[in-house]
Design a protein that fits this description.
The complex is a heterodimer of chains A (429) and B (322). In chain A, helix 9 packs antiparallel against helix 10. Chain A has two domains: 164 residues, D-Maltodextrin-Binding Protein, domain 2, CATH 3.40.190; 205 residues, D-Maltodextrin-Binding Protein, domain 2, CATH 3.40.190.10. Helix content of chain A is 48%, strand content 12%. With 429 residues, chain A is an alpha+beta fold. Chain A starts with a helix and ends with a helix. With 322 residues, chain B is an all-alpha fold. Classes of the chains: A alpha+beta (429), B mainly alpha (322).
Chain lengths: 429, 322
């Protein structure tokens, strides 16, 4: 016994030593403190998912001679804890850091972690962006924390071949005409289900997401950031609309294996696509399904899912240059380039009017004019106020309760009660 | 001996003038060497343990006495986090889940490991090294890979297990929707990964049992079954307890498997069917930035529970070995 413990302790010490060495090696990079006013050798950019910055960064390197390192994290779920660690320890954050709308607010709640960009970026750019998007980049104390990158304007992706088999129209305008409102969407789904016996939409949480962001009013929080999850009309509307569609749902919640596998299997015929989702739909469906998908308007018009800002952490050693880089990455030309590369939808008004953007068609999605479709829907987005813990309330209270109902684990009333109770604990900040 | 050594006559040749001081210095060095080098030799462990073990623990304890925002303000609130913890339903839910999964994984796993170790210990077995290596392989596979693959096997719509169950006429099971099914699925991953490891430890314990005991028993006419019960098992007790304690610590800290099983959802299921204590700690301490102090309290609660369970184990062994 004593031998084994000693041995395991030795193993633990060795392990700790290895980690320590690894940690020291990792820290080594951060130790170069710049002299005053010195031009940085390198700027670091942190993004999650796909921002389409690969080419832009090269352009910037050529223009300025400053090296730019692009650090990509695949999913927001992994990205956020890393960012938290950087901020909590005051070390390791990139000079330019992307913030998504769902997490922006909790980081805004502690504005001292971020550099105020107001004096650092050109003053005239404030009018270049969608006004509501620009305003959301400001902290409660008036500091400008982020410059807008993209919005997640909603559309519906649908399978033409499956629609045809069910006797539904397949032309994108005719399909959009099927569902001027959510009721129409439900009826189309029921028709599809009757004809094929299969589910129509991926999940009711996807529906709720669409409805939630169309309301144009406060969601889980009011303007003073009090949690109002149980009384908010927008939340109730999303809940009621979504739960009513349980009969046409494939019960494959977004990002689950059932969901990503469902694209190839044709488990559902329609899903909600913000512009950045197109690439994911294409990847999940595979080359074999190329040309079978198309893009139509979202029921109820407008709606938004995701979208980000670029911010500069207070700990950055080169806030001025970092702000310049952020400004470059979000200007009209860059946003059009990024859209063409990976699909994030511009927020720069000039980019939205750009010819190259408007005439862009997506080959995978039956050559749908995605530039035009999404560009038009941007105007219909209703700016909403997301509270500090919006993401936690939505992910850990609202959607789980809805799924519990969808899977038959709880009645509609019990699920609502689960949500309102959990929202209170998740929403505290 | 020592007396003759101290009264030994001085060497006849006259020493060089600087020799005494030199010798004294060497003597001093030897004394220091004897007295302090052992401490130096073990110092790295204590330094590293201090930096990576003790300091984080004390820091966590300090955090748990605060209303601590990970990226914002900290306010001292005494034991409020702990009193809140006792009344927190989701904490108790996580505790029950953890023990449920622990029971489902540890008990079958150790029985299986005991069976396999006994099998591998048979003198008649051929290709011993091959089997011993083979049984350890699952442990080498990265835990994330295991969780992802098993997550697919336990998928609702296209999972292998549901397909197999379908062949014998059982309806599709939504593994993630109930407690028993999600616990079973997660315990399966743990069992797959750790049975081989425990088998090897038990096997090592079995090989340390003197062979003559078995020979004597065989001469007295004891069957292999009886030999197993009356020689192998009692002699294996210390090893067995070691394995139990290791499994306890592992079981209480279960995190990656249930997290990946639920597609990375930190609440572990729509109604927290399989959220473990470690996940709850992460939810409160890291996911929710503003409740880091509460998360630290959960971490200390986990620590206390592990100490408590290990103490019970220890007492049971002491009593059994008397």
């Amino acid at each position: 016994m004593s031998l084994t413990t000693r041995r395991s302790r030795m193993a633990a010490a060795t392990l700790a030593a290895i980690t320590a060495i690894g940690g020291l090696a990792a820290c080594g990079n951060d130790d170069d403190t710049p002299a005053e006013g010195e031009k940085p050798e390198k700027l670091v950019v942190d993004t999650f998912g796909e921002f389409g910055y690969d080419e832009l960064v090269k352009q910037y390197e050529q223009q300025t001679g400053i090296k730019v390192e692009l650090r990509k994290t695949a999913q927001l779920g992994e990205y956020r804890p890393k960012l938290v660690r950087y901020l909590a320890t005051g070390k390791g954050a990139a000079d330019v850091t992307a913030l998504e709308e769902g997490i922006l607010n909790e980081f805004k709640a502690n504005p001292r972690n971020w550099a105020d960009l107001t004096p650092l970026v050109s003053s005239e750019i404030a009018d270049d962006y969608l006004p509501w998007k620009w305003e959301l980049g400001k902290a409660p104390d008036g500091r400008l924390i982020g410059v807008p990158t993209d919005v997640g304007s909603l559309a519906v992706c649908y399978r033409k071949d499956l629609f045809e088999a069910a006797g539904l129209p397949t032309e994108r305008d005719a399909v959009s005409a099927l569902w001027p409102d959510w009721n129409g969407f439900h009826q189309a789904g029921q028709k599809y289900k009757q004809a094929t016996g299969k589910a129509f939409v991926d999940s009711i949480t996807a529906v709720s997401n669409g409805v939630l962001f169309q309301q144009g009013s406060d969601l889980f929080y009011d303007k003073e950031n009090n949690i109002i999850a149980d009384t908010s009309p927008a939340v109730k509307a999303a809940w009621d609309t979504a739960t009513s569609m349980v009969d046409i749902s494939a019960k494959a919640s977004t990002w689950s294996p059932e969901w990503s596998g469902g694209f190839k299997q044709g488990t559902f015929a329609a899903t909600f696509c913000p512009s950045w989702m197109l690439g994911i739909v294409a990847d999940n469906s595979g080359e074999a399904n190329k040309g079978k998908w198309d893009v139509a308007a979202v029921p109820g018009g407008g709606g938004n899912w995701g979208g980000s800002w670029l911010a500069v952490p207070e700990q950055s050693k080169y806030p001025e240059e970092a702000a310049k880089l952020a400004e470059f990455l979000t200007n009209a030309t860059s946003q059009v380039e990024a859209f063409k590369a990976k699909g994030p939808l511009p927020t720069n008004l000039e980019a939205l009017k750009n010819e190259a953007f408007l005439s862009y068609t997506n080959e995978y999605f039956s050559n749908a004019p995605t530039g035009k479709i999404f560009g038009e829907s941007v105007a219909k987005i209703q700016p909403v106020h997301l509270g500090p813990k919006h993401q936690a309330v939505k992910e850990n209270a609202f959607e789980p309760a809805m799924r519990a109902f969808e899977n038959g684990q709880a009645s509609k009333d019990a699920a609502w009660e689960q949500f309102t109770n959990d929202a209170k604990t998740q929403g505290v900040f | 001996m020592s007396l003759s050594a101290t009264t030994a006559p001085p060497s006849p040749a006259a020493p060089p003038p600087d020799a005494p001081s030199h010798r004294r210095r060497g003597y001093l060095f030897n004394r220091l060497d004897l007295k302090y080098s052992p401490y130096l030799y073990i110092a790295p462990f204590f330094l590293i343990f201090g930096a990576f073990g003790l300091y984080p623990m004390l820091r966590t304890a300090w955090m748990s006495l605060h209303d601590w925002d990970m990226i914002g303000e900290h306010t001292f609130i005494g034991f409020d986090n702990y009193t809140a913890l006792i009344k927190d339903d989701y904490f108790w839910n996580a505790l029950v889940n953890t023990f449920g999964i622990f029971a489902l994984s540890t008990i079958p796993q150790l029985l299986m490991a005991l069976f396999l170790a006994n099998l591998l210990n048979q003198t008649l077995l051929r290709a011993k090294t091959f089997f011993r290596m083979a049984i350890f392989v699952p442990n080498v596979v990265s835990v994330a890979a295991v969780a992802i693959v098993f997550g697919m096997l336990f998928q609702r719509d296209f999972g292998l297990f549901n397909w197999l169950l379908g062949l014998v006429g059982v309806d599709q099971i939504d593994w993630r929707a109930q407690e028993w099914s999600s616990w079973t699925a997660i315990a399966t991953m743990v069992n797959w990964r750790w049975t081989g490891y425990n088998t090897l430890i038990l096997l090592a314990g079995m090989q340390a049992i003197p062979k003559d005991l078995y020979e004597a028993a065989a001469i007295d006419g004891a069957s292999p079954w009886r030999q197993f019960w009356q020689i192998t098992l009692p002699m294996l007790k210390p090893t067995f307890i070691f394995v139990v304690i290791l499994s306890t610590i592992g079981g209480m800290q279960l995190f990656t498997e249930p997290l990946l099983f639920g597609n990375g959802s930190i609440i572990g299921g729509n109604q927290r069917e399989y959220q473990t204590l470690a996940m709850y700690m992460y939810e409160k301490g890291i996911y929710n930035l503003s409740t880091a102090g509460y998360g630290a309290a959960v971490a200390w609660a986990i620590f206390m529970i592990i100490v408590f369970v290990s103490l019970i184990n220890f007492v049971l062994v002491r009593r059994a070995s008397k």
